[in-house]
Amino acid sequence: EDQVTQSPEALRLQEGESSSLNCSYTVSGLRGLFWYRQDPGKGPEFLFTLYSAGEEKEKERLKATLTKKESFLHITAPKPEDSATYLCAAMDSSYKLIFGSGTRLLVRP
Amino acid sequence: GAGVSQTPSNKVTEKGKYVELRCDPISGHTALYWYRQSLGQGPEFLIYFQGTGAADDSGLPNDRFFAVRPEGSVSTLKIQRTERGDSAVYLCASSVDSGNTIYFGEGSWLTVV
Q1: B 41-100 residues with CB < 8 A to A
Q2: Are A13 and A95 in contact (CB under 8 A)?
Q3: Which of A47, A50, A51, A70 has the fewest CB atoms within 10 Å, i.e. is most exposed?
Q4: Tens digit of pLDDT for each residue in B87-106?
C-alpha cells in the first residue's frame, strides 16, 4: 500500500537553530515528491517539487532533497515566521497526491 | 482570479441535510482535485478530474459523496444526508495538467451539528 510518513510530528527550534524534517515514502510509480507549507486556517502553499533522486531545490532558508526512499526539508537559521505545518506528498502513478500527516514547526525568538 | 477559489469558506449544517461546496480553479487548469482534511492530519484524496471527466474517484468514502465538473472549469462537491463525521475542511486544488504543480485553495470548513 502506498504510504507517506513524516517525522518528527512536532519540532520546536530556537531562532537560528538549523534542523531537518524527514519524509519517508513507499509509493509505486512515483511521479514527484511535493512539499507544502500550511498555516492555521489556510490551504497548503506550494514550496517545491522534486522529480528524481539526487535532485535538490532551494528557496530562501529552505532546501529540499530527494533520495529513492525519502526526502528531507532542511531549514537553515529559521525565523519565527517559518513557524507552520510542513506537509510532504508523493504523487502516485495516477496523478493523485498522497500526503503525510505533517510536521508542526515552532520557531521561538 | 489568481488562485483557486472556494465557496463557502465556512458552512454549518444540520445532520441529514444536503450540502454543496464550490471550487473555481485557476484559469486554464485542466486538472482539478478534491481533498478532505481533518484536524491534525494531512489532506486525504477524494476525487480527481481531468477536464470534465472524473479520472479517479477512488477516494470518495461512500455514495453520499458526489462531484461534478460539467464544463471543465468550476466543480461542485455534493454531500447528501450529511453526518457528523463529515465535518472537516474540504480542499480543492488545480494544476495546468496532470503531473504538474498542484495549487490549493483555502478550503471550505464544513461543520455538521
Answers
A1: 41-45, 48, 55-56, 59, 91, 98-99
A2: no
A3: A51
A4: 999 999 999 988 889 999 99
